[in-house]
Amino acid sequence: MTTAPKATPPTEPGAPVAALAPGADMSARAGVAAAPGADVAAGAAGSGAGLGERADAGRPATVFIGLGANLGDARATLVQALAALRELVGGAHARFAASSLYRSAPVDASGPDYVNAVARFDTALAPLALLDALQGVEQRFGRARPYRNAPRTLDLDLLLYGVVGSSGGVTLADARLQLPHPRAAQRAFVLEPLAELWAEGEIPGAGRVAELLRPLRGDARQSVRRLDA
Fold it and tell me: Does this model's pTM top 0.85?
């Protein structure tokens, strides 16, 4: 039996605190949620930072997280999930921003349409510790993994870690985690909300977000529609 998510004040994409404006950076002083294997040991910035290391010693790492859901009230789930992600923010002047919500048809899968979004925030968690924390949030929302690409109550993907300006941060290859996310540059439902927050950013090994998105906007198989606030 799955435990229902803890009640959290809804975080509607759109305004301060209770709502996050599309692309708006917000100051946050939330505590860092503990996660198995959390390690804030110093690490070298850029490609090759260790799984147990932060991208830059003594500073929080800027990350992008993709959110998706297509079971139950998917829109309400994403609003609540954005609030839950604020628990992972760390740093004295850490920022949090969320894109608008988008509707998309399943890609390489079946089931109802998805509701998608992207969040950007600063965290003191190392890559694998952050992955563990994200999976913990998924479980709170009843995530099950019966088979590959199954419909889901909530999906949280670590897209980029250690982002600095337009640079897409670290590259990692591990059995549990690949950075950047291996399909982020190929999916309109990721790139459309990502472009809202970081259009001029460059995904390592793939290219600039705005340029990657342009051809996908003409692909009927990857139709993405922004939802009204």
Answer: no
